[in-house]
């Protein structure tokens, strides 16, 4: 049912946690399942995301997509990070079952919310 | 949104894992969110559940309810374990938001499936 990459990122999630004094923080909820996620970004003076962490109450698919999403946005500019869509994350994970696609939206929306939070502060 | 007990069992889940050569194993899926759970029971010759472990791909609410459910069935007879309903588990956790009640069904159903598996083998 789940690809090897999904199981790997579910069982060994990367970048779980919080960033104190993060440049941007985004909290989003998933209307479909009631799960929540918070994403923390650390953005340097050149607009490069040099750290990214997340916490979630969501399911294994939410954990795996967020883990992969944090890996994908690290080292990127804000413009590049905006192109890390849930589709790109799912492709990097070799797919998700259709019933779990809504879970992958949490990561994309949380990154956007955190970038928006950063933009508002600057 | 979540009680202290829910957060405790989510962040420090009890009895996660597998039991090799378990007396009963139950695997169930949640139609609403597509999540899966497997429950392992070890039942001695007197019909007492002396060990119980679980694995799930489910969300924080599924993890917390399963963790509490395994604590509640340990040391119980099969008859007593059948009374560990999702309602009893939610009460022991000081409640769950309505949108997450379906997640608590996974634990109840997985315990029932594992007891059924045990009954079929004996
Ligand atoms: S079911 Fe809620 S995030 Fe996957």
Written description of the protein model:
2 copies of one chain form a homodimer. By secondary structure, chain A is α+β, with helices and mostly antiparallel strands. The first copy, chain A, contains 5 helices and 3 strands; from the N terminus they run αβββαααα. Chain A has helices spanning 4-11, 60-73, 78-81, 86-92, 101-121, and strands spanning 24-29, 36-43, 49-56. In chain A, strands 1-2-3 form a 3-stranded antiparallel beta sheet. In chain A, strand 1 (24-29) and strand 2 form a beta hairpin. In chain A, helix 2 crosses helix 4 (86-92). The longest helix of chain A is centred in the last third of the chain and has 21 residues, at 101-121. The radius of gyration of chain A is 13 Å and the shape is globular. Chain A starts with a helix and ends with a helix. The mean pLDDT of chain A is 94. At the A-B interface, helix 2 of A face helix 2 of B. Residues 30, 33, 35, 58-59, 61-62, 103, 106 of chain A line the site of FE2/S2 (inorganic) cluster (FES). Chains A, B: GO terms for molecular function: iron ion binding; iron-sulfur cluster binding. Chains A, B: Residues 1-122 form the NIF system FeS cluster assembly NifU N-terminal domain. Chains A, B: This is Fe-S cluster assembly scaffold protein NifU. Chains A, B: One of its GO terms (biological process) is iron-sulfur cluster assembly.
Strand content of chain A: 15-25%
Q: Which strand order do you get reading across the main beta sheet of chain A? A: 1-2-3
Q: Which kinds of small molecule does this entry bind, naming each only once?
A: FE2/S2 (inorganic) cluster
Structural class of the secondary structure composition of chain A? Answer: alpha+beta
How many distinct helices of chain A? 5
The number of distinct β-strands of chain A equals: 3
Give the helix proportion of chain A (percent range): 40-55%
Order of helices and strands of chain A: HEEEHHHH
Q: What is the subunit arrangement here? A: homodimer
Protein name (chains A, B): Fe-S cluster assembly scaffold protein NifU
GO molecular function (chains A, B): iron ion binding; iron-sulfur cluster binding
Domain NIF system FeS cluster assembly NifU N-terminal (chains A, B): 1-122
């Amino acid at each position: 049912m789940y690809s090897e990459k999904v199981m790997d990122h579910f069982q060994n999630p990367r970048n779980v946690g919080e960033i104190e004094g993060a440049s941007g923080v985004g909290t989003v909820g998933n209307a479909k399942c009631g799960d929540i996620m918070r994403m923390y970004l650390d953005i340097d003076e050149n607009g490069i995301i040099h750290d990214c962490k997340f916490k979630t109450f969501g399911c294994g698919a939410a954990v795996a997509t967020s883990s992969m999403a944090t890996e994908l946005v690290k080292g990127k500019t804000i413009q590049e990070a905006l192109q890390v869509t849930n589709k790109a994350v799912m492709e990097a994970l070799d797919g998700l079952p259709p019933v779990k696609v809504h879970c992958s939206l949490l990561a994309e929306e949380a990154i956007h919310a955190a970038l928006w939070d950063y933009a508002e502060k600057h």
